[in-house]
Amino acid sequence: MAQNGTIEDAKAHKFNPHFTQAVINATGPKATPRVRQLTTSLIQHLHDYARENELTVDEWMAGLDLLNEAGRMSDDRRNEGQLLCDIFGLETLVDEITYKLASDAQDEPTATAILGPFWRKDAPQKAMGDTIVSGIEGKGDRTYMHGTVTDFRTGKPVEGAVLDVWHTAPNGLYEQQDPGQPEMNLRGRFTTGKDGKYRFYCLRPVPYPIPYDGPAGKILQALDRHPYRPAHIHFILTAPGYKPIVTQIFDRNSKYIGDDAVFAVKESLIVDFKPFEGDPNAEFELPYDFKMATFEDAKKHSVAGATEVSGAV
Amino acid sequence: MAQNGTIEDAKAHKFNPHFTQAVINATGPKATPRVRQLTTSLIQHLHDYARENELTVDEWMAGLDLLNEAGRMSDDRRNEGQLLCDIFGLETLVDEITYKLASDAQDEPTATAILGPFWRKDAPQKAMGDTIVSGIEGKGDRTYMHGTVTDFRTGKPVEGAVLDVWHTAPNGLYEQQDPGQPEMNLRGRFTTGKDGKYRFYCLRPVPYPIPYDGPAGKILQALDRHPYRPAHIHFILTAPGYKPIVTQIFDRNSKYIGDDAVFAVKESLIVDFKPFEGDPNAEFELPYDFKMATFEDAKKHSVAGATEVSGAV
């Protein structure tokens, strides 16, 4: 007996009405409940998508070619598959689902935003007050960023918090995209002391296009969409006993602030760069405080089953 | 104004109720109607999938890693992305949608089945009556396959039909998977003359596992599913003025005939290998006729917008 149902069944409906259930039923008894749930739902959505849109073999193959091409382009310097998800808003959505922290109310931790494909592990450890800028002197608006990392519930400073920061150069490229920049330029890690304070020099970032020489670019072009992100700085905050925070802050005056190609902007993460007097090393000041939640407190704000940030801890 | 809606909106629903529409709305006016339809539906299904299952960042990342890995493994000898689709039944479904030919009624063309990831272009041109077996003498059940290619409507023979055939070796491997086999072993192309008849020697195929050393294998394992396909022979038929047919025929007595790992079996494609007397070159006989439809006739049986088989013509 074939799996695909009888001729009578197939003729009674536009497409074989038993096929999707047959594929779902192939799952064996030893699959975990979560794996079973995620794949059953995936099969249902994939098949519904194909039927609702009467997806042809050629169209499916074209999509498949893009996915394979994205995988081939991906390595430790570039994650094209992630970029594909990002232009469809999927990373922002799973970030919202996982953390489910209701943005910017006073008594809540710092909101999260997507990791993006340009984070690198092992960014250099820096001394407090150092600059993360190297090899591009004289370019960009120099900025003095500083603030305090506090416990969102008690308001007390968090000691030993590691702030991992990265942003693009004035040419719109991250260092791993740009052979002209020194290794690990515009990246650094800073560890807070007892006062929870941090400070460092960086640049005021600029808007930039996400890489559009691969499948993501092809899709943006087909969708008549621009590839730009508003100016932003990326952070991962980790501290002993605290839930890691993956976030970005956005320059209020940046172009594309209401039109991010990867849909990551949240109102609570929009900041103001202020003209800075009296420091020969910086034209702008950026004060910003981070609020972290202990794992225990974070649980009250997260959905059931939320797990740690992949690769960030 | 950020894209992600206000705090009030977010609190009124479990997740931001405006987010999916914001992503869909980013599509520009120059996108074609079909691209707009396919991506709007894709965004809606992706987001619904994430929300319905409360997909976490870790789970999304795990899926993404599998997709990138599949792309990296794919080249002209292996298409792991296609294999991923196949184990979820997607290729069989788009095949059904594209061709929508109601299987085995007498007055209809030969049913289609998935191309699978092992077809190679430029299989050797053979003379009618040749064998496609080389370098593995003495292994496998030798089979004499023959039949006629006819026009499904008129019943007349089709001249100049090219039958492109491929199947696995007795060890369950296609030649491009197996350094021990001669290049293009168990592949060949045969062109019919005026009588529309074809004949060649091959082997009676065996069930085999799809490759499970990559992402598809990991998923099958997590789903507690076996990786086996029932014994089958692949064909692509092309002929001037006729719609190409991509299909497979399946051995009725094969294990897994009701339980194909990629869900490709259709009743009308199940065949009987018969013991063959009087030919020292074959232990089995396999008579099989193919019925092709002209492009004009095929239109009446296909969904609107169905296109040619990608890469097969």
UniProtKB/TrEMBL annotation, chains A, B:
Protein family membership: Belongs to the intradiol ring-cleavage dioxygenase family.
Record keywords, A-Z: Dioxygenase, Iron, Metal-binding, Oxidoreductase
Domain Catechol dioxygenase N-terminal: 33-102
Keyword Metal-binding: yes
Residue ranges of every copy of the Intradiol ring-cleavage dioxygenases domain listed in the record: 116-292
Name the UniProt record assigns to this protein: Aromatic compound dioxygenase
Pfam family, one: Dioxygenase_N
SUPFAM superfamilies: Aromatic compound dioxygenase
Swiss-Prot/TrEMBL cofactor(s): Fe(3+)
Origin species: Didymosphaeria variabile
GO molecular function terms noted in the UniProt entry: catechol 1,2-dioxygenase activity; ferric iron binding
GO BP, one annotated term: catechol-containing compound metabolic process
